[in-house]
Amino acid sequence: MRSRTVQGTVAIAATASLALAACGGAGGPQSGGSSKLTDDKVVIGLLNDQSGVYKDLSGPNSKVAIEMAIEDYKAKYGDKAVAKDIEVVTADHQNKADIANSKAQEMYDRQKADIILDVPNSAAALAVATQAKNKKKLYINIGAGTTALTGASCNKYTFHWAYNTGVLARGTAGTITKAGGKKWNIVYPDYAFGQDMNKSFTKEITAAGGTVGQSIASPFPSDNFATFITKAGEGDPDVIGSMHAGGDLINFVKQFNQSSLKGKVQLAVGLMFITDIHSLGVDQFAGTQFTDAWYWNFDAQNKKWADRFKEKTNTRPSFAHAANYSAAMNYLEAVQEAGTDNADAVVGKLEGKKINDVFLRNGEVRKADHAVTHDVYLAKVKSSAPEEWDYEDIEKTIPAAEAYGEANPACSMS
Amino acid sequence: MSEFIQYTLQGLAAGGFYALSALGLAVIFGVLGVVNFSHGACYMLGAVLSAVLLAELNVGFWAALVIVPILMFGFGVLMERLLVRWLLELDPLYNFLLTFGLTLVIVEAVKQRYGVSGLPYQVPAGLGGQVTVGSVNLSVYAIFACLFSVVVCVAVGLLLTKTRIGMIVRAATESPDRTRALGINVGLWVTPVFGFGIALAGLAGVLAAPTRAITAEMGSNFIIILFAVVVIGGLGSILGAVVAGFLVGLVEAYGIAYAPTYAQIVIFVLMAIVVLVRPSGLFGREEVA
């Protein structure tokens, strides 16, 4: 009975959206008057983790970043702006795919969101991609790492802006192996993300001429890694790769630092964010290498933006904050160019676009799979922080082509 | 062989810590009959308090080992006076639910105040580095944490079995009416015992701070292992908690060494076997229905 009601609602919503789309397609005026915008305004939905492990990485401060983009857009176009009324709506997906799914539906249908941004957590990210495809509305993912977004689950309305697990593997594993760290042992958390990371790292290490002695799965979550570290030290590796994230990563590094391997074996981390360094303390991570999509103190342009962000939030931006800004700004630019917020028209303007902004360097919205390719960075954690949040030395810029490789063959847009 | 010794030592080191962490849970259950689900949250509070004391008042690890349990004792007393005591007469499930709810409140409050990505804490000076004998090595801090835990467990055991205070407390819980008849104010003893159990959780938190991620969620998974420890040892038995703590530490270490994917499952397999063979746990008293 209940599913029937839901089906009914979906049917009504689908019919309504078809009718609206037809209306827009005919170029007829919208109900609101002369505006070319649906509902007379642009609504940007920010769907991310507002209370859990990724709150500090992205969370509520990404709304501030999006508002900065809106401010800049309005300042740039003034009276000529196509989108005069821009609204930001937010929701907390609590890192759960089912909640992300229903919130995305609510945003697209009831809150009239024209685009959804961010959505960390791979399972949640993929759920929203399906919604975007069904509703024919835009979706730019920033926080999630899964390559499926630009692979098997890719679609016309979904873009992946910041990084993916393939980029991390090519950046960290490829670079370290080529620099002489040939013998690796890997410890990874035993769930989808960890298994994925283990596979991509092993592939890149082997491709770069290295070997992986052992890949050890650890239960997730876990807080006692001492024995895992001992095991990972067997066979005299040059590098131990930890594929853990968040609290597990901090546990791993703390216990690695207390082991006899500290100083003898290099520690490489698959997925690390500046917020992790902040919470553990810079000296604990000192010397650890990882791939970062963006760093606030990399150059004057980034620093200037980071200063503006700090005025509003009293903290420094993570890559996710900068990427949310960049995605929102480029979306609005595309709306401006298209003269409408019609999703198909905006997608047309975004595809193939080459972008250089505060977040994207040598950026390109790749048409084939909608990966937004750009230069990424091999970072090394400083041994002490000159100021709060100043934790990384950028050792090497990894060019976009090297970091992203070829377009994902698993993706077919249709 | 040296690998086996290495894993055994690591298992024992982890076990000592599990024993201390489970001790407060055992004390509170043994004396009050309350299954304190908020033990994990109190353990987390202990770690968070040490990090906050260090960051804001520059109070170091050694002072935190004393100050944090005292603060947590106060917290436990408040908890017992304001909430737990009103449900003691009812089915134990009520206090289980109460402490479960409290856990949610405490965890969310810490998230609101200190964020989610964790707080920094270092190994105290003098306890860094490793001890190496042949090809076997252990971190100095792990050895310290294990020995410290054993000393505290033994002290608590002696306190409850060999002193007058311990005798009163045990009498008050085994037979409250008869103890009252002897002129002892039973109600007076319940509160400090609860506070003491909470203080032990806080103490375990301080001990965890240098070696584990200090986040609001750090107790949420840990409490599950602690429940396994007290169930294996026998609910309420202090000796049981200690023996089971070491047992779980060893089983986990061997699991990681020889079947890493199943490292955590083996703990619960052990628990299932114990419950099947000896429902009251290794050292638990048979319940008289």
List the helices and strands and how they pair.
The complex is a heterodimer of chains A (414) and B (289).
Chain A: H1 2-25, E1 42-48, H2 61-77, E2 86-92, H3 97-109, E3 115-118, H4 122-135, E4 138-141, E5 158-160, H5 165-178, E6 183-189, H6 192-207, E7 211-218, H7 226-232, E8 239-242, H8 246-257, E9 266-269, H9 274-280, H10 282-285, E10 289-292, H11 300-313, H12 319-338, H13 343-350, E11 354-355, E12 363-365, E13 372-373, E14 376-381, E15 392-398, H14 400-404
Parallel strand pairs in A: 1-2, 1-3, 3-4, 4-5, 6-7, 6-8, 8-9
Antiparallel strand pairs in A: 10-14, 11-12, 12-13, 14-15
Helix pairs in contact in A: 2-12, 3-4, 5-6, 12-13
Chain B: H1 2-32, H2 39-57, H3 61-82, H4 92-114, E1 130-133, E2 136-139, H5 140-162, H6 164-174, H7 176-181, H8 186-208, H9 218-233, H10 238-258, H11 263-277
Antiparallel strand pairs in B: 1-2
Helix pairs in contact in B: 1-5, 1-8, 1-9, 1-10, 2-3, 2-4, 2-8, 2-9, 3-8, 5-6, 6-8, 9-10, 9-11, 10-11
Describe this protein's structure:
The complex is a heterodimer of chains A (414) and B (289). Helices cover 42% and strands 17% of the residues of chain A. Chain A is of the alpha/beta class. Chain A folds into two domains: 205 residues, 3-Layer(aba) Sandwich (Rossmann fold); 155 residues, Response regulator (Rossmann fold, 3-Layer(aba) Sandwich). Chain A has a five-stranded parallel sheet with strand order 2-1-3-4-5, sandwiched between helices. Chain A has a four-stranded parallel sheet with strand order 7-6-8-9, with helices on both faces. Chain A is globular, with a radius of gyration of 22 Å. In chain B, strands 1-2 form a two-stranded antiparallel ribbon. In chain B, helix 2 crosses helix 8. Chain B is mostly helical and 289 residues long. The mean pLDDT of chain B is 89. The interface between A and B is large, with 41 and 44 residues.
